[in-house]
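To: structure desk
From: M.T.
Subject: fold request, one chain
Message: Could you run this one when you get a chance? Sequence is below, nothing fancy, just the single chain.
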Amino acid sequence: MDTTTAAGAVPGTQAQQQRVFETSHLDVAREFLIAALGTSLRMKGTEQSRLMRHARFDFGSFCVDDVTLPLETGFDVDPLGCLAVVEPRTGWVEHRWDGGSGRAGPGEIAALSPPDRPFTALTHQLDFGSIVLGQTVLGHNALLAEGQSPDSLRFTGMRPASAGLANRWRDTVAHVRDVLAARPDAMREPLVVGEMARCLAESALATFPNTGAPEPTSRDGSDATPGAVRRAVAFIEEHAHTDITVTDIAGAARVSPYALRTAFARHHARSPLGCMRGVRLDRAHFDLLGADADADADADTDANNRATVAAVAARWGFPEPGRFAAFYRDVYGVSPYDTLAL
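Reply: Done. Structure tokens follow.
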């Protein structure tokens, strides 16, 4: 069975592709994997009753996968151009690339290879979840030096740098999967997809050793001025409805990402992303006021109010209504449901 559905084909929203492939036939599985990975493939075994399954949610900048390979398989893979991080539930995978190798089993986390290098992999009775992050989203969330292209980012280690960072990665992935399971409608919103991509990219950059985050320079300190903050805030206010990153904000402020964060620490009550969240919260507040003004008389029910609040929250990048309500109450002193009911 091979089904592909466009779960977000709505004008102005992120195109979310959902694909589920299942087969018990080795030849069909081999053809699918070759097409999916662009790879040569070896599959050992002759059993026809073992189900191979590949389920993918593709959000463009990242993918969430669940894969079952119940036999022993071998792959020779060209450079993926992305970071594929696997977490086996059962079985194991061995992976080798020029300059390194690794093995991951249940409870372990590993990236399969540096995005720019070919690799080989051998799997045994493997069932795993994975996150695939594109080079662009990784580069745009890295604290690269001024003038450094996102494509120049390189990963130098395929295992988490520490147990604590591995747990941070697990928590981030669990958060994304929880939102995907509980609020699939929210994952159609571009700002929610952007926020999930940013969380995953920042966690991957912190977890796996890489060439990002260069040492700050004296220029970064001198660039951390109130003027940089003013330019950044103006850019955030103008572009809060779009998916922007710290790199985008820093570029508009004409400073490095490190200088931007330093400038906000010195001259603003919030971080750049905290400022952006505050602006988006304000926009959500005004949308709730407008929704109340336009509401039908028959629409003033608890269920409809909750649906409206959830939709407004997701539109502005807040996928979880409970967390949105907590942020909202901290700023406005009332719940968003109270605002809608006024």
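Reply (cont.): The first strand starts at residue 2 and ends at 6. Let me know if you need anything else for the meeting.
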